[in-house]
Design brief:
With 298 residues, the protein is an alpha/beta fold. The chain is built from ten helices and nine strands. The protein has helices spanning 9-21, 24-31, 35-49, 65-94, 102-119, 171-177, 197-205, 224-232, 246-251, 280-295, and strands at 54-57, 60-63, 95-100, 124-129, 143-148, 155-162, 166-168, 238-240, 267-273. It comes from Pleomorphomonas carboxyditropha.
């Protein structure tokens, strides 16, 4: 016979409450059951064991010898189950899993998440970096930081920051291809990922709608961080978010040859399912993130 059929957990839970309180009525009140339902569960258990567990006396009950043997073990078992559940809840509450893009993680979140942990030392943070949107019904994670328009059904979305783009290259490459008198001159350079829609957006805004991008070889690096590294090494021109590369621009490792910056109206958003909006760890991270971005905008 299967193990599960020999373990009547509901009846054992009722027995534990009755034996602890020594009252069918009080056990029913604690468990949200009628006295009749409590009696039925006890009788079911007695039938399975083949022994009486209680003696019914006028205005009181007593444990039988079989009940006395069963009571401490059942109480101990349910105490262990409650302890295990509490430990599991604590583990979930104490870890916050954040899914975000590699670029946002490297150039903003990883540099500032320590400030969140100073204010919430009981919450451990785990970062998952992926450019693919997170599926909350399938993928591990509590919250996500996504790039887009903020129109994801079923998700709470908090606007974090607008994102702009502009071409950047190394000073070494700039010296080699000079002069760059107009945006069209960038086409003399190797374009890092010419299939990136930001390139077409930028060239159109720069008055070069006929830029020959389609026939160029694509290099798919998967993140701005890697594209920037390639640009810094002098391997081509990358289209990047200036706010993420202030240090590189200030130090001269990257050069923005034209002042024109563009945006496709996309932004970064903090998102999570509607059903999670009241979780303390999510509220704590949301409040910190929105306040920190307000104080230190890109």
């Amino acid at each position: 016979m299967k193990q599960g059929r020999q373990m009547p957990l509901n009846a054992l839970r009722v027995f534990e409450a009755v034996s602890r309180l020594m009252s069918f009525t009080r056990a029913g009140e604690e468990l949200g059951m009628t006295q009749t339902a409590v009696s039925y569960q006890v009788k079911q258990l007695e039938g399975l064991l083949g022994e009486l567990l209680f003696r019914r006396r006028p205005r009181r009950i007593e444990l039988t010898e079989a009940g006395e043997r069963l009571m401490p073990k059942v109480g101990e078992a349910f105490a262990l189950l409650e302890e295990a559940m509490a430990a599991a809840r604590t583990a979930v509450d104490e870890q916050l899993v954040i899914s975000t893009t590699p670029t946002f993680a490297a150039h903003w979140l990883a540099r500032r998440i320590g400030n969140f942990q100073l204010g919430a030392p009981h919450i451990a943070v785990r970062l998952i970096t992926d450019n693919a949107p997170m599926d909350f019904s399938r993928d591990p994670g509590d919250v996500a930081i996504r790039f887009g328009k903020g129109d994801w059904p079923g998700l709470v979305a908090h606007h974090l920051m607008e994102v702009e783009c502009a071409p950047m290259l190394s000073p070494t490459l700039l010296d080699w291809v000079k002069p760059l008198d107009s945006p069209r001159d960038l086409l003399k350079c190797k374009i890092i990922d010419p299939g990136d829609p930001w390139w077409r957006l930028w060239f159109d805004a720069a008055g070069v709608p006929d830029a020959d991008l389609e026939g160029r070889q694509r290099n798919l690096f998967g993140s701005q961080t890697l594209e920037a590294s390639s640009a810094i090494a002098g391997h081509g021109v990358a289209i990047l978010t200036p706010a993420f590369y202030r240090e590189e621009l200030a130090s001269g490792r990257l050069v923005m040859p034209f002042d024109l910056v563009c945006s496709d109206q996309s932004a970064y958003w903090l998102v999570y399912p509607e059903s999670r909006r009241s979780q303390p760890k999510i509220r704590a991270f949301r409040d910190w993130l929105l306040q920190d971005i307000e104080r230190h905008p890109l």
